[in-house]
Amino acid sequence: MAIDNRDGEAFLTFVTDKLKTRIAHISESILEGQKDIEGMHEYYWENYTEMDQYGYENFDNQQALLHQINANEQQIHLRKRFRKMLDSPFFGRVDFIFEGEYEPEIFYIGIGNFAEETGHTPLIYDWRAPVSGLFYDYDKGPASYEAPLGTITGEIASKWQYKIRNGKMVYQFESDVKIDDEILMAELGSGGSVALKNIVRTIQKEQNAIIRNTKDKIMVIQGAAGSGKTSIALHRIAYLLYHDRKNLKSSNILILSPNSIFSDYISHILPELGEENIREMSFDLFAYKELKDTVSDCEDRYDQIERSLTMPDVPSLYKEKQSREFLNQMEGYLTTLEDELMNFHDVEYKNFTRKEEEIIELFYFKFQDIPLLSRMEAVAENFIDEVETLRDSDMDEEERAFVMEKFMGMYETRDVYVMYSRFLESCGYPGLPHVQLADRRLSYEDVYPVLYMKYRLFGQNSSHNGIKHLVVDEMQDYSRLQYLIIKMMFPCRMTILGDKAQTMEDENQDVIGFLPKIFGKDIRRIVMNKSYRNTVEIATYANHLAGITDMDLFERHGAPVEEKHFPGKESQSMEQALDEIIKKLELGEEQFETAAVILRTEGEAKKAAGILKEKLAAAGFDTENRFSYLHRDSTSFCKGLTVTTFYLAKGLEFDQVFSLFPEADTSALAKQGRYIAATRALHKLHMYEYGN
Ligand SMILES: Nc1ncnc2c1ncn2[C@@H]1O[C@H](COP(=O)(O)OP(=O)(O)OP(=O)(O)O)[C@@H](O)[C@H]1O
């Protein structure tokens, strides 16, 4: 049947039909595959006693089985994508006249490629396909895109946008400007969900340039609050996975994210785009895992923040211990260890001897590039090799361990905890408690210096070699020291993003300024000043709080920000504020999907959550399913009302936000907290203060 693919509605019917047919074929083939797999299993169990003694037949059988299982899994994956596409097969279209031609060729764009059969010309193109770049980057008129064979030029005759839901056309229109602002307005104006949304329909040109950048090894993006950094990072991962399928698998990517709630918040996007989810971890958790053989517990960032907020007068060594000077002192100390740590002596094993002078020669010259605490292993290996050659037989495990131990005994200690403690004392700081591994707990200020010392002494842990792309979100929350560690551990491509205005320190940290000094010329810096999340009223208010003047706002208007002060004793005034919040909460039907009460500290958030839960339950609110108190160990949250601290709300967004801070706290950190809270609001913001 010929199809007029200029008519979006007719094309939808046509392509839906084709999708259904293809899904039916795939289902048949999956069933057949399953039967084959069962057959192979049965054959094996019936015949395995008679299989040839060398196991060849068994091996062939296993290989065939694995092959069939893989093939089936791929088919299941494909079917899942096509089923998803049935709901909304495409969202855009470009009519492109190739240079030298007269008639336009029509390209429909969706979340994945779709053809009637594998290998046929696609009916729908994946948003990441080269030709789809036209849709995001150009208006009507001359345009070009990069294809594997080079640059393709021509002219865009027209561009269309579609909204299809449940397989039905909701609207379609021709747009001659880039991604039409009206659609973007509709997307941004809609109620928030508990998860970050995919933005494939409305990626903006400057965002597209970041998503499709494959040239730069390290991209650093300074983006204003709500400019789409996190969204872009995830779409970029999807793009890279699509374009480098052979070399890059989802298991090769790691996201360093602020916490596990954030991981949950963004976990829907990649599967929605037909990709597998990827590993995410907070840097604190990563450090804790890396230091497991050195200490039994580490404080995390939140302990540090809580301390700064609740005990502002207690002096902290955090900054000092992350400073360049401290690190230089440590480097100096590491140099002295080269001598001080070593007690060289002859090593004898059976009739073989390695003289002290030879060991010294190997240690300081031949193997000098190996980190100090791994170096003696190389010296020992060198000896073991020689012994094995001379006696013409390999050592067994026990012998090797015995010899190795003799060499390792030349270190006075290999315990990084002990060395770090001595280093602290050598600089005039109090040392760490002399306790067994099970009782060792590091303060936050010491966690990264110890980790740094460990890497400098032992070298990089090879288990991270599989990571080919690292994403660092909320880059402003990492210190220079943490970046030095990241550089040592991950010599791979990176996407680093954040916002200096959302620093969780008492002063803004300009990461984008110092990163080039760490990573060198491989870095490309991009600044995004356009914000999409908040209404103009909210963004203007928040910018005023933080003294930001250079932000470009997407013109979407809403209610003015409500400011209110509840004076009085702390507990009483907080309760009054909470009563007001319950009154103003717009979480009924036809109202908002999500709201948040954002507080300053863990203690305040917990207290407010307790009161709110009780009062809301008494008022008949479904607190079982529509209320969450987010704390540092939470891993997910639900639609409805969320109560949490500003530092856990980072990166998230809610339709309606109530910021509730004690008026008395005018510290720089609390100011940052209010700014972070304010920028979480999509549609309505209430800035409440309580106490005197
Ligand atoms: N091109 C776009 N189309 C539709 N929505 C967009 C677009 N860009 C950003 N948004 C929306 O703007 C909001 C903010 O995006 P995102 O959370 O990625 O920003 P961010 O820069 O990481 O924010 P923050 O640093 O404040 O946490 C999200 O709701 C996102 O869906």
Instruction: Count the E strands.
Output: 24
Q: What are the distinct ligands in this entry?
A: adenosine-5'-triphosphate
Q: The biggest beta sheet, please?
A: 6 strands, mixed
Low-confidence stretches: none
Count of separate DSSP helical elements? 25
N- and C-termini, Cα separation = 76 Å
Global structural class: alpha/beta
User: What is the average per-residue confidence, as pLDDT, rounded to a whole number?
Assistant: 90
Strand content: 15-25%
Keywords: ATP-binding, Helicase, Hydrolase, Nucleotide-binding
Pfam family, one: UvrD-helicase
Protein name: UvrD-helicase domain-containing protein
InterPro entries: DNA_helicase_UvrD/REP, P-loop_NTPase, UvrD-like_ATP-bd
Characteristics:
6-stranded mixed beta sheet, single chain, 18% strand, P-loop_NTPase, helicase, 692 residues, binds adenosine-5'-triphosphate, 25 helices, 6-stranded parallel beta sheet, 24 strands, UvrD-like_ATP-bd, 45% helix, UvrD-helicase domain-containing protein, globular, nucleotide-binding, alpha/beta
